[in-house]
Design goal:
OB fold (Dihydrolipoamide Acetyltransferase, E2P), binds magnesium ion, 2 domains, six-stranded antiparallel beta sheet, 364 residues, binds adenosine-5'-diphosphate, Rossmann fold, alpha+beta
Length: 364
């Protein structure tokens, strides 16, 4: 268990910048998930923490000790990869103990640590099997066991569940949460799947284009995103975005016109709106859009289709500007109207400027 600090870390491969000025402080015992689209630099950052990749600039500290020059084997980190990377000719027990054997640990100690890890992971009955005789989920548990026996200060997981089918992934997530609780270890977990991030993390680092977009608790990212990227990335179905023109700015409220390309205006409470901003994107989640009753403040929407999932229905439609809108309706059945109007709940509206930055009320 250890705290981890990443200080002004950047990384380039040749002339190509991959990570820019990463600053993160991860607490001892925390479960932190790095999430972002493929290619945004998650694995590179993880590999730098464990020492498989060198920093172009910046520093990494584990428990207050600078590790930039420390050998990967001596950093107290253990990594679990998507490809389980097990030795096919060794048994489960041999695979789990191999790193310790290479480090010259006595046989009896290795045996005990392997037995302990096997108990934690419910692998006791499989210790004499070879990887070829295991399911995908069992193989991944062996790979995690190989990390546990090393008693690392920091566990690093790089998309460990991506090769498993959907049902097994859900089960393995629950096992990882339980494992974290029992070991109390610092864990860093990389995934491109925001649902996985929301499920597992104490805190999430949202990355895009080699930059940390936001670092926070799952629900804080959901409710209070710093920018349009985070707003659109976290949440399923995704947040709706509607372009609008700022037509009136008062000290306590604003009026937006041409909402979603319609002729409708939207009056919103907003304290201290920046005078210069004339074009905004309204971000609003499906649960804050409801089917309207045709009044003048509502936005006309042409319905494309409805997803009736049983407990909830998502109605997919288009604004006059052609942008997509998803409406969450708790009514079990949708009547199937082609055209409707929708009302936006002002409390659920987030505003973003043309550069995707969140516009926040002053004093809120
Ligand atoms: P992620 O894990 O988020 O999908 P990566 O960290 O693997 O992203 O990669 C980030 C970027 O760095 C990608 O554009 C990738 O092509 C590039 N990259 C990764 N490793 C190397 C390397 N050894 N040499 C050159 N480019 C690399
Ligand atoms: Mg990766």
């Amino acid at each position: 268990m250890a705290e981890l600090e990443i200080k002004s870390v950047s990384k380039s491969f040749g002339a190509v910048g991959v990570l820019q000025n990463i600053n993160l402080q991860i607490k001892s015992g925390e479960f932190v998930v790095f999430v972002g689209p493929s290619g945004c630099g998650k694995s590179t950052l993880l590999r730098m923490i464990t020492g498989l990749e060198t920093e172009s600039s910046g520093e990494i500290f584990i428990d207050g000790k600078r590790v930039n020059e420390v050998d990967p084997a001596k950093r107290g980190t253990a990594m679990v990869f998507q490809s389980y990377a097990l030795y096919p000719h060794m048994t489960v027990a041999e695979n789990m103990g191999f790193g310790l054997k290479m480090a010259g640990e006595p046989k009896a100690e290795i045996k005990e640590k392997v037995a302990q890890a096997a108990a934690i992971l419910r692998l006791e009955r499989l210790l004499e099997r070879r990887p070829g005789q295991l399911s995908g989920g069992q193989k991944q548990r062996v790979a995690i066991g190989r990390a546990i026996v090393r008693q690392p200060k920091v566990f690093l997981f790089d998309e460990p569940l991506s090769n498993l089918d959907a049902e097994l992934r859900v089960q393995m997530r629950a096992e990882l949460i339980d494992l974290h609780r029992r070991l109390g270890a610092t864990m860093i977990y990389v995934t491109h799947d925001q649902v996985e991030a929301m499920t597992l993390a104490d805190r999430i680092v949202v990355m895009s284009g080699g930059v940390v977009q936001q670092f926070g608790k799952p629900l804080d990212l959901y409710d209070d995103p710093d920018n349009r990227f985070v707003a659109g990335f976290i949440g399923s179905p995704k947040m709706n975005f509607l372009d609008a023109v700022v037509s009136e700015v008062g000290s306590e409220q604003i009026v937006l016109s041409k909402v979603g390309g319609s002729d409708r205006n939207l009056r919103l409470p907003f304290r201290g709106f920046p005078q210069k901003v004339r074009q905004v994107a309204i971000g609003i989640r499906p649960e804050h859009v409801r089917l309207g009753s045709g009044t003048a403040e509502e936005l006309p929407v042409t319905v494309s289709f409805a997803e009736e999932l049983g407990d909830v229905t998502y109605i997919h439609g288009k604004t006059p500007a052609g942008g997509s809108v998803i409406i969450r309706s708790d009514k079990a059945r949708f009547s199937g109207k082609d055209d409707c109007t929708v009302a936006l709940d002002p409390a659920g509206v987030k505003l973003f400027d043309a550069d995707g930055r969140r516009l926040r009320e002053i004093g809120v």
